[in-house]
Amino acid sequence: MSESGQAGRFPFYGPQGRLVLVDSALEAVNRGSTTIGIKTQKFAIISSQIKPTHPLIEPSEKIFAIDHHIGATGAGYIGDILQLIDTLRLESQKHRLTYESPIDVDSLAKHLSTYLHNYTTYAVRPQAASIILAGADQTGVQLYQVDPSGTFFRGAGFAIGQASDTALDVVTKGYSADMTLQQATELATKAIEKALGEKPIVETGIVELGKDFSKTLRK
């Protein structure tokens, strides 16, 4: 088989054994809106910068309800983010119809991980978006990050998008397991502001035990 035929059939690996297309997708994520996730035992929040657009165009929604107990946000190409949000919503609805119960956050994160990983097994463009999932289920409050490669993480704090390293440093230094919801919201806004070097417009989603997912806009 010719080299061109092999390139069309198999993923292209770089000199360090990394998938070039996945690295390109991650670069697109790193140019996206600065986005934060913070979790304690009682709640989780997801916050994302709303980038300014043309004065006559309404800004894109950045925080999404997946089910009454789960919310999500993302950084990267907005078209890819919206497709992944639809994928999450569909899987959540299918679970409810099949089992007559809400899906747990871990299963939803693993489903998205598998969905994204499938893009890396063929020479096609991976989804240029990372997603942060926040939810509350029978195991408690959960927070996940899922990247274009299909790799997923569970934790108490994440940052993706533009200057995410700077934002994550602020979250790490300011995080406390017994912090209040207001303190977490202010910390997320502070992290985004520090990353951007300016006062941002931030949309925030909130998950609390025993309450439905909700969201607010702070200017």
Q: Which key terms come to mind for this protein?
A:
five-stranded antiparallel β-sheet; about 25% strand; disordered N terminus; alpha+beta; about 220 residues; Glutamine Phosphoribosylpyrophosphate, subunit 1, domain 1; single chain
Short description:
This protein has 219 residues and is an alpha+beta fold. Helices cover 37% and strands 27% of the residues. It contains six helices and ten strands, in the order ααββββααββββααββ.
SSE inventory with pairings:
Layout: H1 3-9, H2 20-30, E1 35-39, E2 43-49, E3 63-67, E4 70-76, H3 78-99, H4 105-119, E5 129-137, E6 140-146, E7 152-154, E8 157-160, H5 164-174, H6 181-196, E9 202-208, E10 214-218
Antiparallel strand pairs: 1-2, 1-8, 2-9, 3-4, 4-5, 5-6, 6-7, 9-10
Helix pairs in contact: 5-6
What would your notes on this structure say?
- The protein has helices spanning 3-9, 20-30, 78-99, 105-119, 164-174, 181-196; strands at 35-39, 43-49, 63-67, 70-76, 129-137, 140-146, 152-154, 157-160, 202-208, 214-218.
- The chain has 219 residues and is of the alpha+beta class.
- The protein has one domain (33-218): Glutamine Phosphoribosylpyrophosphate, subunit 1, domain 1, CATH 3.60.20.
- The strands form 2 sheets. The chain has a 5-stranded antiparallel sheet. The chain has a 5-stranded antiparallel sheet with strand order 3-4-5-6-7.
- Strand 6 and strand 7 (152-154) form a beta hairpin.
- The longest helix is centred in the middle third of the chain and has 22 residues, at 78-99.
- The N and C termini lie far apart (58 Å).
- Mean pLDDT is 89; it is low at 1-10.
